[in-house]
Q: What sequence folds into this?
């Protein structure tokens, strides 16, 4: 993966003599041989290399931190020249976030003027109040640096320089008073506070010693800070605590010392040497070295360096102890340097392991949702172990799939609440009117609103709107063209509410948007009204009337002899079970293949004929899947198919309950497609609740059912779906006659072998979360006994041949590149 | 990831499935970040696809 952050060493000496400094006081002593000040040529080359790297990887932004030693020793004019050279080289290709990190002893108005002019944000090292700061941050003479640093920070706090004030960095010494340190730092009103554990390894333990479960002094110190900070109402961002909260809830850490995210940082020294992160200097002399220099190597060479890549494997790159740990997603094994031990290298937990576990647990226990006077107390969605295991086995009963449905409803409510937060009272009138009507419907007949909100493509609409509303580069109102807080498509909520009101049999009047000549009513159908932008809909007694410039329509859904402009959503029926044959919804075109246009009556009849075969087949032969399908499948969405004979189907994460498919050859094939795609739907819904794979794992894997290598989560999806495919042929080989039975047996033999292999690839990836490991264990428990079931020798041989040819073809395509 | 309480897996997602539309549904910034991550296209092609597809060729 590419680098996105670069530390550029501009001066290799320092005017303080802090005894905890990793540059001068730890194992690596490479600073002694470096030029004191970076040369202009080296700066220019660094800029060129970074620009080259940004172009090659199409990066939109990179961050460069000017560092030392003490960078201010380079002088204000030199720093201005460096900034100018970097911007000139990099900014034609991508944006540059330029920063400097300093001890601030020399920081004065002259420096601040340069930094303001060059848009350089300033981070300052300060260890707290004077008592704490004077424990380490001293001049070589032993004199305190505190007063000079405070004066510099006061300068940054002035209106003139406030915008370049980036934050404070504090190295912890447990001898100091944690609350006094926190309050002293917070009083300086920084945008951000960073607390750092002192650099240490198993061979060079921390000053307060190696922590244990019984004694974790750094955790206790940080817990005191956390409690004071929480009691104060969290008035300032503290990166460590924010990162623990974020990673606990599945987000991304803001600091490289926590979390599973891959390292994307490179250091460029004053002589142009490319090094790993500075903190590794603590391990051993020469530890950060790569042997590469920007004069002779592009940054891609460093990105490919094994030592750099070793820090990009997420969960898989951690020690066995870490991978089993319940707080690993927040901890991430701690800072890489802190894992070092001479005999085992970096394959260890952090020397601060017990401290990290304790402070993460402490912060997690303090996490509560924001609350207000009318807030609902937060409860989390849960699955019992039994429900989770039933899903993992490939099936899932009514209760477990019902809980997945609850998860989808929760997500839908959250999406709507987030859209409402963004809505503007004046300019999102259609959305607001829709909201008001939906709330009225809910009061009268909650089930009617729930029915419409549960429609698969309502989530697709909501996510599309939220993506647009929160796009970082979106000027307010740009999408609506009228200064609105939401994109124009948010007006679709009026149509959702109208559909709910119709279903509730309520009387309601509302303006509903018209798109491409149609007024869309989710779950009901669409009305052709012609070239309008809105139409007025009046609902009453289960029907509705629409008025627009182009005409007037009255529709009673479900009634015989409907208006020819009304295209009602039809149903597929088998006995008492029905699903929508969804060929009208405005947002249905979110599967991999394009949606088919509205079906003719004959085409709809073909679907019904096949469904009448498929569903009884599932009821009879695949009862293990029936409860889940009955609880969760709500729509079949016809896909366009421009290749005769090709069978296609697709599920979409943002459309739970819908299966997209082109009409297959027969009802048996439709049963297979429904089983297969609903597996994806179940797993998507599980993934909405739980992370099963390490999101930092960027490797690609062989998936025998695909032409292209797949990310881990995609391999999991394919394997889970092929559990059902294997099961389908396992059963069908006994039901089909003669030669067709042999073909079914070959498919069973093929898919059981490949699914079992894929299960082992998943299990061996080292990148499953604990929940993911449990899930894959459940899949294995299903497929493993199938491997012992007898199949005709010809079928087994054909399956092996097919698999071998498939793998060989894949290797021909992929391995030359991979080598 | 999931917290485990006894043999119950506790999701990151708040349970709002029966929340009235007008209820104040609060979502922590980190839960919000996960929701946005789950629906946004991600860089580098390493994210799970939003769409799964199956060409059965059967």
A:
């Amino acid at each position: 993966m590419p680098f996105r952050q670069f530390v550029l060493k501009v001066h290799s000496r320092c005017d303080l003599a802090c005894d905890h400094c990793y540059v001068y006081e730890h194992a690596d002593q490479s600073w002694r041989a470096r030029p004191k000040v970076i040369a202009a040529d080296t700066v220019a080359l660094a800029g060129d290399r970074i620009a080259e790297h940004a172009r090659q990887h199409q990066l939109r932004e990179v961050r460069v931190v000017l560092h030392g030693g003490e960078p201010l020793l380079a002088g204000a004019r030199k720093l201005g020249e460096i900034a100018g050279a970097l911007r000139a080289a990099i900014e034609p290709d991508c944006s540059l976030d330029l920063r400097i990190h300093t001890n601030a002893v020399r920081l004065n108005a002259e420096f601040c003027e340069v930094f303001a002019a060059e848009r350089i944000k300033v981070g300052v090292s300060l260890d707290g109040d004077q008592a704490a700061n004077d424990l380490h941050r001293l001049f070589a003479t032993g004199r305190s640096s505190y007063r000079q640093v405070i004066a510099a920070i006061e300068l940054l706090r002035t209106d003139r320089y406030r915008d370049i004030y980036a934050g404070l960095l504090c190295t912890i010494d447990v001898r100091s008073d944690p609350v006094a340190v926190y309050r002293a730092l917070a009083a300086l009103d920084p945008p951000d506070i960073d607390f750092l554990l002192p650099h240490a390894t198993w061979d060079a333990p921390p000053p307060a010693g190696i922590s244990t479960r019984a004694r974790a002094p750094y955790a206790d110190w940080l817990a005191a800070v956390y409690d004071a900070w929480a009691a104060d109402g969290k008035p300032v961002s503290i990166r460590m605590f924010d990162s623990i909260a974020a990673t606990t809830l599945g987000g991304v850490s803001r600091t490289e010392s926590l979390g599973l995210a891959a390292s994307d940082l490179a250091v460029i020294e004053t002589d142009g040497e490319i090094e790993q992160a500075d903190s590794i200097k603590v391990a051993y002399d020469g530890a950060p070295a790569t042997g590469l220099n920007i004069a002779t190597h592009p940054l891609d060479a460093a990105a490919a360096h094994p030592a750099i890549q070793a820090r990009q494997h997420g969960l898989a790159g951690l020690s066995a102890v870490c991978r089993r740990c319940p707080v690993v997603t927040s901890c991430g094994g701690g800072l890489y340097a802190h894992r070092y031990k001479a005999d085992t290298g970096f394959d260890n937990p952090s020397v601060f392991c017990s401290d990290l576990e304790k402070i993460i647990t402490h912060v997690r226990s303090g996490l509560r949702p924001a609350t207000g006077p009318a807030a609902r107390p937060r409860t989390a969605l849960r699955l019992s172990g039994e429900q989770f295991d039933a899903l993992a086995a490939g099936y899932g009963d009514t209760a477990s799939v019902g809980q997945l449905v609850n998860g989808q409803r929760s997500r839908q409510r959250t999406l709507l609440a987030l859209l409402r937060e963004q809505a503007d009272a004046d300019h999102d009138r259609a959305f607001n009117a829709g909201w008001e009507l939906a709330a009225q419907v809910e009061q009268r007949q909650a089930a009617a609103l729930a029915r419409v909100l549960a429609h698969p493509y309502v989530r697709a609409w909501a996510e599309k709107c939220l993506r647009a509303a929160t796009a970082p580069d979106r000027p307010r109102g740009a999408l609506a063209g009228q200064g609105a807080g939401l994109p124009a498509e948010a007006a679709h909520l009026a149509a959702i509410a109208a559909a709910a009101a119709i279903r509730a049999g309520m009387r309601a009047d509302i303006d509903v948007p018209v798109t491409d000549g149609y007024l869309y009513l989710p779950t009901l159908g669409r009305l052709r009204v012609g070239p309008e932008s809105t139409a007025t809909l009046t609902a009453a007694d289960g029907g509705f009337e629409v008025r627009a410039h182009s005409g007037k329509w009255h529709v009673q859904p479900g009634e015989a002899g409907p208006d020819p402009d009304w295209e009602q959503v039809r149903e597929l029926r088998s006995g008492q079970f029905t699903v929508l044959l969804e060929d009208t919804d405005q947002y249905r075109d979110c599967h991999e293949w394009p949606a088919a246009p509205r079906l003719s009556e004959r085409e709809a009849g073909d679907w019904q004929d096949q469904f009448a075969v498929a569903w009884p087949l599932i009821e009879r032969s695949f009862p293990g899947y029936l409860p889940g399908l009955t609880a969760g499948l709500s729509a079949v969405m016809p896909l366009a198919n421009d290749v005769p004979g090709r069978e296609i189907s697709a599920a979409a994460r943002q459309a739970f309950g819908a299966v997209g498919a082109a009409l297959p050859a027969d009802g048996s094939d439709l049963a297979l497609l429904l089983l297969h795609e609903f597996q994806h739907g179940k797993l998507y819904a599980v993934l909405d609740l739980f992370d099963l794979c390490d999101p930092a794992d960027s490797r690609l894997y062989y998936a025998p059912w695909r032409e292209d290598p797949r990310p881990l989560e995609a391999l999991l999806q394919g394997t889970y779906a092929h559990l059902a495919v294997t099961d389908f042929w396992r059963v069908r080989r006994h039901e089909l006659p003669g030669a067709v039975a042999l073909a079914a047996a070959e498919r069973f033999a093929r898919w059981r072998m490949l699914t079992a292999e894929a299960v082992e690839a998943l299990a061996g990836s080292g990148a499953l979360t604990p929940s993911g490991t449990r899930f894959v264990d459940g899949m294995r428990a299903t497929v493993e006994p199938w491997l012992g079931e007898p199949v005709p020798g010809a079928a087994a041989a054909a399956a092996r041949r097919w698999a071998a040819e498939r793998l060989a073809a894949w290797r021909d395509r992929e391995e030359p590149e991979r080598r | 990831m999931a917290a485990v309480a006894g043999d119950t897996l506790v999701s990151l997602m708040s349970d709002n499935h029966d929340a009235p539309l007008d209820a104040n549904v609060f979502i922590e910034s980190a839960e919000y970040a996960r929701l946005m991550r789950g629906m946004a296209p991600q860089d580098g092609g390493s994210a799970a696809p939003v769409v799964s597809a199956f060409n059965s060729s059967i």
Residues 386-399+569-689 of chain A form one domain. Chain A touches chain B through 94 residues (CB under 8 Å). The CA atoms of residues 315 and 343 of chain A lie 22 Å apart. The first strand of chain A starts at residue 5 and ends at 9.
